[in-house]
Amino acid sequence: MHFFDFNLFKFTFFDLLDVLLVAFLIYQLYNLIRGTIAANIFIGLALLFGMYYVVKALHMQLLTGILGKFVDVGIIALIVVFQQEVRRFLLLVGKNASLQRNRAWWQYFFGKADAEKNNYARIKPIIDACKSLKSTRTGALIVFAKYYDEQFYQNSCEVIEGKISKRLLESIFQKTSPLHDGAVVIAENKIKSASCILPLTEKTDLPAQFGLRHRAGIGVTEANDATAIIISEETGELSYAKQGRVKMNISFAELEKLLNKDF
User: Fold this and answer.
1) Which residue spans traverse the membrane (predicted)?
2) Which residue, 142, 160, 161, is CA-closest to 226?
3) CA geometry: angle at 193 spanning 189 and 198, to 5°?
4) To which CATH superfamily is domain 112-262 assigned?
5) Most buried one in 5, 68, 146, 158, CB count within 10 A?
6) Where are the domains of the chain?
7) Residues 6 or more apart whose Cβ sits within 8 Å of residue 202
8) pLDDT band per the 50, 70, 90 thresholds, residue 106
């Protein structure tokens, strides 16, 4: 008579932690590629790897050799194919572990009133400009970059390095302005650049009314630690993009809360 060895199923606290961490990483990966072409690529690669192990088990030498070449460079292929997703994942990890987040908590507990007052003074010109642009249905894309990547932004932008002001933002996005076609990038408490050509999102499940401006606003928040305000030229509707997701038709009260939190 054979007895079943229950020692094989010993489950410790670290085993539970291991499972939870893997589940968290898979969930974050799912969030990063959900609704993008990368999701289809990931499924294709998974099928390719699965097929390799099937043909290997069936001793199909020719297919095993061909598919084995892909498997041998698996990690490198994943990094190349999912370059943007890997970048976004590392930005997410760095953002959560950054000293700036720790300073923000310190400020929240010990200097909240002063911080809110100073922050409102910073965002008021932006909100006022958005009100004006919305009322005239002037299309606009304003990006708030937490870290200003000169190589990413300056290659396709006109450098401004100007103080944030309502009139400057309004003048940039006027249809007769040579800088209106593109995005304004705000970082380090300045309007750093304008007329920026940004990467478009690869998401396939966006509303039909989203044009290039919305797709660029979402795309830049996928590739960088940034948020974006999008004002529709057709409807004047305000949208807010963050981490590849977009909130549509937001009010100015919502916009103020979002900017207070993120900017």
Assistant:
1) 12-30, 37-55, 61-82
2) 142
3) 115
4) DNA integrity scanning protein, DisA, N-terminal domain (3.40.1700.10)
5) 146
6) 12-97, 112-262
7) 36, 37, 38, 219
8) very low
Residue 99's pLDDT is 47
C-alpha 148/C-alpha 181 separation (Å) is 20
Give the count of alpha carbons within 13 A of 121, CB side only: 8
In angstroms, rounded to a whole number, what is the distance separating the alpha carbons of residues 2 and 91?
A: 53
Q: For residues 206 and 38, what is the distance between their CA atoms, to the nearest angstrom? A: 15
Q: Tokens standing for 117? A: 């007052």
Task: Please tell me the distance from the alpha carbon of residue 250 to that of residue 51, in angstroms, as a whole number.
Answer: 47
The secondary element (H helix, E strand) that includes residue 140 is: strand 140-145
Show the DSSP H helices in 58-182 as ranges: 61-72, 74-81, 83-97, 99-110, 112-135, 150-154, 166-173
The answer, as to whether pTM is greater than 0.85, is no
